Amino acid sequence: MSADTVYRAARVVTFDPDRAQAEAVAVKNGTIVAVGSFAGVRLWIGPDTEVLDFGDVAMLPGLTDAHVHPIWGITGIAKGIDLTGLDTLHDVTARLQESDPIGPEEWILGWGLDPNIFNGPMSGRSFKESLQNRPVYLRLRDVHSAIVSPRALELAGITGEETFADKSLVELADDGRPSGLLLELSAMALIEPYLPSFTFEETTAAVLTQLKTMASLGLTGGHVMDFTEGSQEILEAIERATDLPVRLRLSPMCTPDMDEGQWKNLLNLQGLGGRRWQVEGIKFMIDGTIDNGTAWLEDPDIHGENTEAIWKDPSAYRRAVQYFIAAGIPTATHAIGDAAVRYVLDAIGAAEQSESQVPHRIEHIETIPDDLVQEFARLGVIASMQPVHATHHTRADRTDTWSARLGEERASHGWRCRDLRDIGVTLALGSDWPVTPVDPRAMMADSQLRRPVEKPDIQPVQPEQALTALMAYEGYTTHAARAAGHQDSAGKIKVGYRADFTILGADPLQLTPEQQASNPVIATVIAGRPQFINQEHR
User: Fold this and answer.
1) Could you tell me where the beta strands, DSSP code E, fall in 287-371?
2) Over the stretch 98-123, which tens digit does the pLDDT of each residue have?
């Protein structure tokens, strides 16, 4: 029997301990059927086999971003002006003044706003005069909060008297009126119906463009931590016209306002999918973010905040997560503060496990004490982390909002990637795009440097938590596969595994982090078929 395709490269980095390196891979029906020397693999070459020789490059298992929002990012987050990297109120205002208003009400939209730009309380009133009293909606970079102008509050009829099923909040200023800061998703949802709308075709095209960007950066897959309204229709529309540029594993959210009947609806979504996407798993959020004061810490921060779960009744979260665990459904829970992480670990540890042995994971894990590092290992819970949040959002001198709120001890326990890896915990890595950039090469470089790779003069944040190059790339391959329960079919170049490959200009394990960040992406392959090819390197 001959192969459909044989791939050849100077260096095939398999991540398979039984055969660490090779030079050729044969693929049949989207599955790897042979790995080894070209002389050995050429036995699979028949009259109809296509041989693709990429020359002096490195072929790796396909890189998978373990936490990303490519659809919700387009439909609900990354709208308007990208404010990422702007670090003063003056710069933000200037960028917004240059933007073109959107829609009949002349909205000004932006995303990626740094909370550190405000010298004092965050307020939308800052933009009333500078932006001519237009309605303004700016998502903060944590995606858990937004700044809106007085005109936007007026259009949405927001008074500050609103109540929510969770711990969302319309913050009030000293005068008793809304300041313009909306904390958490339910509060932000109040204003979303009034935002400018985009056609289904425009939205679908924008999602496809983002997925193509991900492929061009070396990604072959993503764990999508949502399945928001409209996601199915968008994915189906793309697949009617073409193939998805990356594989997507989507996990719908279980929110505090859902009852058991709605839990069952989420169960019924499991397995829904298309050629390259599938609903698999459930996503929870037990707390918010430290910058906003909505995370759940064991002791208050310096402002007396960050003391509660988003779920008004945390035991309701426990019942919900244990319902899905008992049903054999993988779970992923956003937990940032130490109290939140402890509660989730306790809930998972006390759950009645199904016989299917599916993985359960915690997302973000921004600050935890030593005993919780040990608890991850004891329970076998997956750590899914984005060390790029530390490198982009905190500073070594602790002058950033996150560190200042926590104080020195808890800030020094931030993003304990190396401690978790050294004790044997599975550590999946991701970007959380659009919270931070999606390029996996820069993300993995940052995780080794513990500073932005593009800023060599910046002091590293907790350099003792730096990963090795191997650990970083495992986070996007073998460990990402374990986090999805796909360790027997993905994450390695091995016979019987999916033929998903990332082809880079050089073996990243032999490069410095700085070199890794600029290591050219030559091609990506999904199910044995080239998905992206960099024509400059052909």
Assistant:
1) 331-335, 360-364
2) 888 888 889 998 888 888 888 778 88
